C-alpha cells in the first residue's frame, strides 16, 4: 500500500481471476487436506477498469494503481526476474481491461486483506491455462467455488442458477434427498463433458449436488472467526441492531471469496424461500437444510456458545450442546434469509 516501506518481502502465491487478484500463504495447487484450512486466503485486490500498471524495471517492481479508489490505493509486487515481471504486467493489464467499471465494484477501496503484509515477492501463477486438477467439481478452493480458472461459471454456479430457475416450484427442494448414486453420476457426467444442466433434470439431484460440493469444500464457507462474529451479532436483542451487526460482520470480517460465496448461496436460498406457497420451503426450512454446510465451525464446537449443560457421566451434555449449536446456526441463516436485502443492500 502507499506509504509502506519495502524493507521485508514475503513469498506469496497468486491467482488472477476475471474480477480479483487474490494471494495465498501457501501454494494453492497443493492437494486439499480434509478438514484443514488449505489455500488460506491472505487477501487481494478487487479489480476495476480504473487500474493501471507501473513497472520499475531496475528494481523488478510492479505497482497496480487505482486512482478511483477511496484514497488512491496502490499494490506492489516484486518479481525474481525480468521475464516474470513483464509476464505479470501483460496478464494484469489484460485483466484490468476486462474488469468491471470502478463504480460497480463492491469493495470501494479496491483492496481487501486480512494480514498485515502489504508487499510481496514470489511466484505469480496466471492460471488462465488449464492445469492438472483432481476434479472439476469436488474439493476446489473457496476462490474457485463459483468461477473456473478461465472466468466461466463453475459447476456450483451453474447448479445454483438451475435451482433458481427450475427448482423454485418443486415441493421439498433442498429438503428431499435424492438418490446418492444419481448425484454421483451427475457429477461424473460433468467431469466427462456434460457441463450444462438441461431444463428437465431432476431438481432434487441438482440440489443434492450443491450440498455435496459445499460439504466437500476443503475449508468452511464461513471460517470460524466469521461464525463467531455472526453469532455475536445474532445475540443482540433488538432486531435493527442485530441486522446491522450481521451486515457489519459480513462486510468487515469475511475474506472476500468467502463473503461472495456466502452471499451467492444465500441468494439461491432466498429465491427458493420466496416461493414458499409452491415449494413449501419457508426460510426456516431452507436454513435447516443449508446451515450445517455453511456454518461448519459453529456445529463443530469451534465457536463460544453459552452452554451451561451439566456433565452427568453420559453424553447428554454433548448432545444438548450439539442441538444448541444447530439451533443457533439455523437461526442465524434464517435471519440472513429474512433480511437478505437489508444485509446485502440489494
UniProtKB/TrEMBL annotation:
Residues 1-97 form the PH domain. Pfam families: PH, RhoGAP. Gene3D superfamilies: Pleckstrin-homology domain (PH domain)/Phosphotyrosine-binding domain (PTB), Rho GTPase activation protein. CDD domains: PH, RhoGAP. GO terms for molecular function: GTPase activator activity. It comes from the Eukaryota. The lineage of its organism: Eukaryota, Viridiplantae, Streptophyta, Embryophyta, Tracheophyta. Residues 144-344 form the Rho-GAP domain. InterPro entries: PH-like_dom_sf, PH_domain, Rho_GAP_Regulators, Rho_GTPase_activation_prot, RhoGAP_dom. This is RhoGAP domain. GO terms for biological process: signal transduction. Keywords: GTPase activation. Coiled coil: none annotated.
Amino acid at each position: 500500500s502507499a506509504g509502506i516501506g519495502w524493507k521485508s518481502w514475503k513469498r506469496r502465491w497468486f491467482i488472477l481471476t476475471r474480477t480479483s487478484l487474490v494471494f495465498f500463504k501457501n501454494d494453492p495447487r497443493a492437494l486439499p487436506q480434509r478438514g484443514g484450512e488449505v489455500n488460506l486466503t491472505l487477501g487481494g485486490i478487487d479489480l476495476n477498469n480504473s487500474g493501471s500498471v507501473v513497472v520499475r524495471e531496475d528494481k523488478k517492481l510492479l505497482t497496480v494503481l487505482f486512482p478511483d479508489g477511496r484514497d488512491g490505493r496502490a499494490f506492489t509486487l516484486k518479481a525474481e526476474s525480468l521475464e516474470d515481471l513483464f509476464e505479470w504486467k501483460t496478464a494484469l493489464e489484460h485483466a484490468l481491461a476486462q474488469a468491471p467499471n470502478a463504480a460497480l465494484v463492491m469493495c470501494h477501496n479496491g483492496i481487501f486483506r486480512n494480514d498485515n503484509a502489504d508487499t510481496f515477492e514470489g511466484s505469480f501463477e496466471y492460471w488462465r491455462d488449464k492445469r492438472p486438477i483432481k476434479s472439476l467439481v469436488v474439493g476446489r478452493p473457496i476462490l474457485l467455488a463459483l468461477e473456473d480458472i478461465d472466468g466461466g461459471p463453475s459447476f456450483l454456479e451453474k447448479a445454483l442458477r438451475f435451482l433458481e430457475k427450475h427448482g423454485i416450484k418443486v415441493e421439498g427442494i433442498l429438503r428431499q434427498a435424492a438418490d446418492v448414486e444419481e448425484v454421483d453420476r451427475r457429477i461424473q457426467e460433468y467431469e466427462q463433458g456434460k457441463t450444462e444442466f438441461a431444463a428437465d433434470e431432476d431438481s432434487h439431484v441438482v440440489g443434492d449436488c450443491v450440498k455435496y460440493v459445499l460439504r466437500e469444500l476443503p475449508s468452511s464457507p464461513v471460517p470460524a472467526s466469521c461464525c463467531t462474529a455472526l453469532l455475536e451479532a445474532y445475540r443482540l436483542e433488538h432486531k435493527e441492531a442485530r441486522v446491522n451487526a450481521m451486515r457489519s460482520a459480513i462486510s468487515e470480517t469475511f475474506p472476500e471469496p468467502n463473503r461472495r460465496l456466502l452471499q451467492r448461496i444465500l441468494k439461491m436460498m432466498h429465491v427458493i424461500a420466496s416461493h414458499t406457497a409452491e415449494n413449501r420451503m419457508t426460510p426456516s426450512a431452507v436454513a435447516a437444510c443449508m446451515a450445517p454446510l455453511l456454518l461448519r465451525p459453529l456445529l463443530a464446537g469451534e465457536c463460544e456458545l453459552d452452554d451451561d449443560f451439566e456433565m452427568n457421566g453420559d453424553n447428554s451434555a454433548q448432545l444438548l450442546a450439539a442441538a444448541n449449536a444447530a439451533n443457533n446456526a439455523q437461526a442465524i441463516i434464517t435471519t440472513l434469509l429474512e433480511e437478505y436485502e437489508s444485509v446485502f443492500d440489494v
